[in-house]
């Protein structure tokens, strides 16, 4: 009987979440002469300004400890030096001290409440701590003070995207593009939001715009490959994945995605080689372990498949697809009770996967647990019906009919 064909995981979000909040980076271009309101304190001490400028140069050189010392000296000489607090917070954040950084951003805001850069940088730090709602509030405050703050619109879009608020994210990315039209990553992030809304053609347009501004932007090639693959254009997708790998040869996502495309073409050995390449760069890449296991399963290499699925689960205990795959492999090894347990675990994690109910129903039926088998097959039928998968609805109806005969 037909089993679930293990669905490969492309992880389109993967790159976006890693790179999403870092593209524009901190606002380090603090202008000492800019007076945001009448109460802003302009540094009076030349020595404080000199230390601040020294710290800025050291920060740009990557000497964060030296920069920290210089900014602290500037603050010592000029305790109300708001820009120095922002700069000090930047150095602390880059040294892995986000809580100290947050305190200094807030101090800067207390001294100069009209400085949009302080709110923006505070938002970046909060976003990296996954405190998205507070980060969004800071980005919005920065924009309220400077409506043309492209970086704030962009990062607000990232935070909204991470929350699944795609329409709002599109609005912010569009604003960022209007204000900074030559910045390639914004088009890519906009493409991702459109992709997730099912707007494949428009997403592809945005990815291509991104590449037109920066042909060496690996992320844009990667995501364009995903969109082309989703459109059923594997040859074009392979070209984009290959470009992404050439431009960023140590990023495992490109190898994983290229492996999926080759898998779909039946080129299992080539797919396996690319999954293994992905894992050589990131041994903890759960989806690549899962995909590699699925390729081994397709080759009938059950021992290797079980090892891969088990590793995916170890790395990501909520990886429902890996439990389903492991259930399939265990069932094929003649271990139905273990298979049943894994199918049920998958269902507990993702309760709307039709094929998992279907596979569970088949295994239960083979074990003569007919009443429970029929319950699961009926659930599978309901889900297949919602997906308009007529072939599987008919297949389930036939199985239920046969089981009902056996129970009577």
TrEMBL record:
Which residue intervals correspond to the TPR repeats? 48-81, 82-115, 116-149, 150-183, 184-217, 218-251, 252-285, 286-319, 320-353
Q: Which GO terms describe its cellular component?
A: cell outer membrane
Signal peptide per UniProt: 1-25
State the Gene Ontology BP annotations.
Answer: receptor-mediated virion attachment to host cell
For this protein, the record's InterPro entries field holds: TPR-like_helical_dom_sf (IPR011990), TPR_rpt (IPR019734), Ycf3 (IPR050498)
- Which keywords label this protein? Repeat, Signal, TPR repeat
Looking up PANTHER family in the UniProt record yields: TETRATRICOPEPTIDE REPEAT PROTEIN 6 (PTHR44858), UDP-N-ACETYLGLUCOSAMINE--PEPTIDE N-ACETYLGLUCOSAMINYLTRANSFERASE SPINDLY-RELATED (PTHR44858:SF1)
Can you say what this protein is called?
A: TPR repeat-containing protein
- Show the Gene3D superfamilies listed in the entry: Tetratricopeptide repeat domain (1.25.40.10)
Q: Does the keyword Magnesium apply?
A: no
Q: Which domain of life is it from?
A: Bacteria
**Which Pfam families is this protein grouped with?**
TPR_11 (PF13414), TPR_16 (PF13432)
């Amino acid at each position: 009987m037909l089993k679930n064909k293990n669905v490969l995981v492309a992880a389109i979000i993967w790159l976006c979440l890693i790179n999403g909040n870092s593209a524009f980076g901190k606002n380090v271009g603090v202008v000492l002469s800019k007076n945001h309101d009448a109460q802003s304190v302009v540094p009076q001490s030349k020595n404080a300004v000199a230390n601040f400028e020294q710290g800025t140069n050291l920060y740009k050189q990557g000497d964060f400890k030296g920069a920290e010392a210089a900014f602290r000296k500037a603050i010592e000489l000029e305790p109300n030096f708001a820009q120095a607090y922002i700069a000090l917070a930047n150095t602390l954040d880059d040294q892995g001290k986000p809580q100290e950084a947050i305190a200094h951003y807030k101090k800067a805001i207390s001294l100069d409440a009209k400085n949009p850069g302080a709110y923006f940088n505070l938002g970046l730090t909060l976003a990296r701590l996954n405190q998205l709602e507070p980060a969004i509030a800071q980005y919005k405050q920065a924009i309220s003070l400077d409506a043309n703050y492209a970086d704030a619109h962009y990062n607000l879009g990232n935070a909204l995207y991470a929350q699944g608020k795609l329409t709002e994210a599109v609005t912010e990315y569009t604003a960022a593009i209007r204000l900074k039209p030559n910045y390639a990553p914004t088009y890519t992030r906009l493409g991702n939001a459109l992709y997730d809304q099912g707007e494949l053609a428009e997403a592809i347009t945005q990815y291509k715009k991104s590449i037109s501004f920066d042909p060496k932007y690996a992320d844009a090639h990667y995501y364009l490959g995903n969109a082309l693959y989703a459109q059923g254009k594997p040859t074009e997708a392979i070209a984009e994945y290959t470009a992404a790998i050439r431009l960023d040869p140590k990023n495992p996502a490109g190898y994983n995605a290229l492996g999926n495309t080759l898998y779909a073409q039946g080129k299992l050995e080539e797919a396996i080689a690319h999954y293994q390449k992905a894992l050589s760069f990131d041994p903890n890449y759960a989806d690549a372990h899962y995909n590699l296991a699925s390729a081994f399963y397709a080759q009938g290499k059950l021992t290797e498949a079980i090892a891969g699925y088990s590793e995916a689960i170890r790395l990501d205990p909520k990886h429902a697809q890996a439990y389903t795959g492991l259930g399939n492999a265990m069932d094929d090894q003649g271990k139905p009770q273990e298979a049943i347990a894994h199918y049920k675990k998958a269902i507990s994690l993702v309760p709307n996967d039709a094929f998992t109910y279907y596979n569970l129903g088949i295994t239960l039926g083979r074990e003569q647990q007919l009443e429970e088998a029929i319950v699961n097959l009926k659930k599978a039928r309901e889900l297949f019906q919602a997906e308009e998968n007529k072939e599987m609805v008919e297949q389930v109806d036939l199985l239920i009919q046969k089981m009902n005969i056996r129970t009577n």
